[in-house]
Design goal:
Elements: H1 10-19, E1 31-33, E2 36-38, E3 40-45, H2 60-69, E4 74-76, E5 82-84, E6 87-94, E7 97-102, H3 116-127, H4 134-140, E8 145-150, E9 155-160, H5 167-170, H6 181-185, H7 187-192, E10 203-209, E11 213-218, E12 239-244, H8 248-256, E13 262-265, E14 279-293, H9 305-314, H10 317-325, E15 330-331, H11 355-362, E16 366-372, H12 376-388, E17 392-398, H13 400-407, E18 415-421, H14 427-431, H15 452-462, H16 471-483, E19 487-500, E20 503-508, E21 511-519
Parallel strand pairs: 3-12, 16-17, 16-18
Antiparallel strand pairs: 1-2, 4-5, 6-7, 7-9, 8-9, 10-11, 11-12, 13-19, 14-18, 14-19, 15-19, 20-21
Helix pairs in contact: 9-11, 10-12, 15-16
């Protein structure tokens, strides 16, 4: 079944018409939007979700809807700490042994209690290589997992076949969202969002129509909100509607006119809100960008270090940063931002900007560049400088979902500007894009080669429970991919969520949590 198979209802058509007006919804009394009282939050997505199976989430918009529909065992809190989701207690016995005590008051969306067995069964599917979840590698590396449950004590026990110190952070990933038994029994319906009893999160999917809108409804029986160190203020919306809008200028206009209450910006369109007190901005640096090369057989970059280095030399990271972020971002020296622990800051490891040297190698070379429309201006800049260096560039701009699918495949592309959301707040998250299991094998690695040296260093770090002891091994891993120019660092990209007056959202470090949207007016 296609990842784009999702339900369509007549009710949604009426909702879509309503969204074209000056303000969404609006018969409730919880807050105001455009001067109209409402219990609805009208938000945006960059594009359509690829589906509603959390284990198969692979792009930014998938992560948003998955966080709203499915709870995870743990959640991120301030200062990169953890807080309970479906778990009340948790323990890292070692880097390969973990256990969780599941809360006794959580239910599935059909009212069935969420037990330790519910959690264990869902995590077992997530951990199964056959499921091909890209979040699996991030949560447990190349390990296999034996997961058992004791419903009497509420304890879930996880034994990994090899050390992976980021496992607890992996249990905060939207992709590790817990699915109830009806969803596990009907995975096609789960992907389509049609299994009513599958959801464990605060919202259920009421209706969906691609390219138009997605409607989520707050569960009357939900009371499993995380107890963050600083409580989330305000009232959860009874209804959240998401409208896919890829053009950021259009998105800004919709919010300014009252047609939407919330949107996420990565470029200059956010400047339209800078001097307007009617809107709040929550900015994080959780998004990085870098060139990543397809090194599989059939790509022009396979076994061609000189050509990869030439492309990296042709692209000026400072100019790219200015073009993409209007000066709001910063150049980076690895695949993670400077805010992440153990990230390399050694500029001598980079290929360096040298257009003359690049032209000597790139003249007459044909390169297939693909890019997400989220980075449209940055992609156009890269295409232009490569053409100026003498290359023939076949450029394809895709919406975020199709871009993710295309670059997750082994063939059909040579290089892309990777937009990387660091979901765990660790350097491991981004390093797995350039080493470890390849995407076609269920991993996150887009360039296609394991990089034995770098991956061995990464695994060495993952055997150390104390984060302070991991940096030497992580530095070795970063030196490895930078020397081989498997990727070329470009820029950190501020990820700014704009909220209209009367609405709020919370961020935790470099992560903005969509489930914390609240009506505060």
């Amino acid at each position: 079944m296609s990842a784009r198979l999702i339900i369509t209802t007549a009710v949604l058509a009426a909702s879509a018409i309503a969204l074209t007006g000056c303000a969404p919804g609006g018969t409730g009394t919880s807050g105001t939007s455009g001067g109209v009282s409402t219990d609805t939050i009208a938000a945006s997505l960059g594009t359509d979700p690829s589906g509603f199976d959390p284990a198969l989430a692979r792009a930014a918009d998938d992560y948003v809807v998955t966080r709203m529909l499915f709870d995870t065992v743990l959640r991120k809190d301030d200062d990169n700490t953890l807080v309970g989701g479906l778990a009340t207690d948790w323990e890292a016995v070692s880097a390969s042994s973990y256990n969780f005590t599941i809360r006794d008051d959580a239910t599935c969306s059909d009212g069935t209690p969420i037990t330790a067995t519910t959690v264990a069964n869902s995590l077992t599917r997530f951990a199964d290589p056959a499921t091909a979840s890209t979040g699996r590698t991030l949560a447990m590396g190349g390990a296999t997992a034996t997961i058992t449950a004791d419903d009497e004590t509420g304890v879930v026990d996880v034994q990994l076949s090899q050390d992976w110190a980021d496992f607890l952070a992996g249990m905060t990933l939207p992709a590790s969202g817990i699915v109830c038994a009806p969803g596990l029994a009907d995975t096609e319906g789960l992907l389509a969002g049609t299994v009513e009893g599958a959801f464990t999160g605060p919202y259920t999917l009421t209706s969906a129509e691609p390219a138009v809108s997605y409607e989520l409804t707050l569960r009357d029986d939900y009371d499993a909100w995380p107890e963050f160190a600083t409580p989330v203020e305000g009232t959860p919306a009874t209804t959240v509607t998401y409208t896919p809008i890829s053009d950021q200028a259009t998105l800004a206009t919709q919010i300014l006119s009252g047609g939407l209450d919330s949107g996420v910006f990565t470029g200059e369109a956010v400047e339209r809100f800078d001097d307007d007190d009617s809107f709040s901005q929550v900015a994080v640096a959780g998004l990085t960008s870098y060139l990543i090369f397809n090194e599989r057989e059939g790509s022009v970059f396979a076994d061609n270090l000189d050509l990869r280095r030439a492309v990296a030399q042709a692209v000026d990271p400072a100019a790219f940063t200015d073009v993409l972020t209007s000066g709001r971002g910063e150049t980076i020296t690895s695949v993670s931002s400077a805010n992440v622990a153990c990230v390399s800051t050694d500029e001598s490891l980079l290929a360096g900007y040298d257009p003359d040297a690049a032209s000597e190698v790139l003249a007459g070379v044909t390169i297939r560049l693909v890019g997400t429309t989220l980075f449209a201006s940055g992609n156009e800049y890269v295409a232009e400088v490569l053409r100026n260096a003498g290359a023939t560039v076949d450029f394809q701009g895709l919406d975020n979902a199709n871009w993710s699918t295309t670059t997750g495949a082994a063939t059909g592309w040579d290089v892309t500007v990777q937009g990387d959301i660091n979901q765990t707040g660790t350097v491991t998250s981004s390093l797995l894009r350039v080493m470890g299991p390849a995407s076609e094998n269920g991993g996150r690695n887009k360039m296609g080669l394991v990089n034995d040296e770098g991956y061995a260093a990464l695994n060495e770090a993952m055997a150390l429970v104390d984060p302070a002891e991991q940096c030497d091994a992580f530095q070795e891993a970063q030196e490895s991919f930078l020397a081989n120019v498997d990727a070329a660092p470009l820029a950190s990209v501020p990820y700014t969520t704009v909220m209209a007056e009367g609405f709020s959202i919370r961020s935790f470090g470099d992560y903005t949590d969509p489930s914390t949207m609240r009506i505060v007016g």
